[in-house]
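A reminder from the course coordinator: this example appears on the midterm review sheet, so study it carefully.

Given structure:
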């Protein structure tokens, strides 16, 4: 079974992400194990200190190296990690291809520090991958950890009910955006579902979907400055 270990100073923030919907179901089906570790449990002074002032000055506090080292070294003594991911806006931009590759691995650790917030020796010593989920700054790596885990777990066979759906996805093969979907009612507040979808004409529906997909993909590339 695939396993994720996340180290966080705010582990509660990941309670509902990992205990809701498909991620919850995936764990119940024993397709994945997701374990969140509270950084504070690895602080060894009696005040359970996990942060301190930065050398060289500057605002704010930094997460100290020792609790991370303690926690990471304990985990590494228990199993072999294929990847130790350090989410950071300075990392490589995350994409579907990376998710696909990660989904083939067994053990992934994610160090969810706070931006500008972790003594850099932690990254330097342990990180195999520094990953950014987008060109913007978050308060911490927990949301990035959620996004990475979500995108990987849905690729594990047996996690999604319709085994086809992950394979047919937008961005799965090449970079293609799918045609839009509609359900009943066929007309709502004057808004109509495209006629062709109600026609029952398989070939026409297939052609329509391909044509929609082509034009949506073209537009997606244009608005995102791709190609
Ligand atoms: N931590 C703060 N901002 C981030 C980002 N954009 N990606 C990954 N981790 C982050």
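Designed residues:
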């Amino acid at each position: 079974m695939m396993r994720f270990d996340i180290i966080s100073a705010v582990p509660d923030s990941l309670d509902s992400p990992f205990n809701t919907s498909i991620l919850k179901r995936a764990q119940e089906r024993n397709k994945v194990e997701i374990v969140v570790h509270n950084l504070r449990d690895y602080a060894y002074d009696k005040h359970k200190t996990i942060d301190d002032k930065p050398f060289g000055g500057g605002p704010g506090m930094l997460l100290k190296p020792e609790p991370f080292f303690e926690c990471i070294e304990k985990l590494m003594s228990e199993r072999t990690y294929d990847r130790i991911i350090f989410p950071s806006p300075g990392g490589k931009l995350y994409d579907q291809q990376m998710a696909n590759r990660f989904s083939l691995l067994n053990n992934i650790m994610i160090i969810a520090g706070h931006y500008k917030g972790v003594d850099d020796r932690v990254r330097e010593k342990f990180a195999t991958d520094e990953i950014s989920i987008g060109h913007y700054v978050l308060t911490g790596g927990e949301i990035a950890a959620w996004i990475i885990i979500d995108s990987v777990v849905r690729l594990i066979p047996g996690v999604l009910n319709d085994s086809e759906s992950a394979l047919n996805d937008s961005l799965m093969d090449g970079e293609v955006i799918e045609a839009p979907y509609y359900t009943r009612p066929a007309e709502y507040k004057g808004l109509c579902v495209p006629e062709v979808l109600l026609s029952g004409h398989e070939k026409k529906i297939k052609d329509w979907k391909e044509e929609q997909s082509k034009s949506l993909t073209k537009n997606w590339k244009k608005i995102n400055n791709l190609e």
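Residues 2-153 form a domain with the Alpha/beta knot fold (CATH 3.40.1280.10). The chain has a mean pLDDT of 94.
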